[in-house]
């Protein structure tokens, strides 16, 4: 045990102390670093970790050598808003989506080193003490005193207990027997088992699978038995698929929050309905097979053939399941734990295909069997363990308990946890672990935070890295006094212009990453101008309308829908619907009331009208007039701006207004501009300028999500005397004339559309198609264009 602090005893009470530098502690630190980068003042941080090196914790340390991750690599990033961070970090990808746990341990170690170097660079104080914290006390002034194994003390204003998982040992009556392993970890201890010995593994889910595979890799040839109450194995994970109705799971969270009484019924029926939908009414996957081996064969086959669509629904509950859980009444939570927890874990947390294949091989060679049973005792006379199972008594020389996590406070073998409970710093949660605030993870004692399996009673789903990262971010936010970011339902109204589509294609994944759910409303896709009426606008304006709107919406977008391209930089709303599972609805202009109903049904908090003009009918505006809703309107275009020598210059800009009852135009809450290039057609830079709008919208959402007022950042009421104003059509034409450039450069619009929305292999084909459409349009306009 050592310390990198010269004198621990003199530590300032302003400190933040983080106990545990596993994935949880590291994720808290990473988020604090982000806050520091954004200018937040962070108190000195002391990290206390008993194991060396910091980072891997239990799951990704040498204790779990020889096992692979059981969650897909794309969910394992340590940043709550960047789940693929680990995947990008990996240099070795040949092991596929479930690399070794030791590789993840290396990632954690690297993150720890990065934290230290970034902290040093920013002048942020982070110190490490390698010791075991045994005791915690709270002084009358609200500060904490921690006692370390070496007898030294630490003072702190805030303490984060990121202590990790405590494995459960239900068979305490076997603890003194030789050959009993109360947990499969560290795996290395299992090497002491003779390779031909019969082994009973209590449990049949992921830890049991890990234990059997570890033994097998170490040359075990003796019989192995999984014994569990159900006698059924965990299911097999298929490749992750998008869930096109993902938004329903978020709407369900809102429904449960607004009416928790019937929560469990609503929850189960909705999930079953969604599963029914993705599986086309086929429920054969849930049937019990003649034997666990037959079931595993069928499950493996289904996973490999991509025929496990039901998993898609369950997988997408990851960010919202804690909200479902949190609003269930206690009796429903108890009922769920008693009746549904085991099947939930079996279906929700399946094993990777690689593991399933190996388990099947062990079963096919009759080395491994899976049976139902509950009790095991030690027979003194025979000197052997005897398990009572549905297949009769089974004898084993060795027993490994692999039943999962321990969440009961009084059974957790941590002196620190026991100290906090004894001193009343923790309040036990009736569903296990300790009671913490849902949003901040603060325990019943202000300043004391905890996360991981200790918080299962409050959050239910606490162990996977995606939740670790989300919870760590909330703790770090609370430590810097940032209000919790509330997940928002955001309606985006967009028209047919290509700039709005670029914006929304950039916005949607970024809003989703922040935990929000976007709902997209498309205004009428048909041309409002009656076909018979001749278009009397000047040619340049007709050309602008064609290249800005019609070409994309009427010609390119339907083609992209037809081809179903993947992996492009930008997506159409239809591609986003199938990829991200966001709600997309086309709305004719007249349907304000039915739109308002949709907004209400989906619990929309914020409406954002992108520059499309005409959708904000009375019904929609009325919906947002409630004080808890916000309606934001974004305008964009070429602005006249004052420049040197009182000359009027032109810039491209966006203005965001917050609309409300007192003012038709609303309050301007943000306006940003960017220079217009002087060497090209005026609207050529649309693919760059939309980024400005995206940032404006994201910044406003950041305020709303944390309950901060938008009006505080107001530029003041809009007035007609505003120094910046958008150019009228005539001014725009005049501006083109003065500059000697076209309003729109058709060739570059076609090039841009193809590059942004079409994968490289299909670009040539789509470019030709669009060129033909353009030629036809020119012909209709009576214009001859010669192409170079
Ligand atoms: C065997 C196993 C396999 C898993 N596999 C996966 C997986 O594949 N994918 C996934 O998403 N999740 C997995 N999990 C869930 C896993 O718990 C989390 O992914 C993650 O490891 C949790 O991080 P943590 O920091 O909370 O806990 P840990 O990583 O265990 O870290 C806790 C740290 O706290 C330290 N500590 C504890 N008490 C004290 C004290 N009193 N004083 C000082 N230091 C202390 C410990 O030494 C440890 O380093 C697995 C869990 C286990 C147990």
UniProtKB/TrEMBL annotation:
Residues 17-165 form the FAD-dependent urate hydroxylase HpyO/Asp monooxygenase CreE-like FAD/NAD(P)-binding domain. It comes from the Eukaryota. This is FAD/NAD(P)-binding domain-containing protein. It comes from Aspergillus eucalypticola (strain CBS 122712 / IBT 29274).
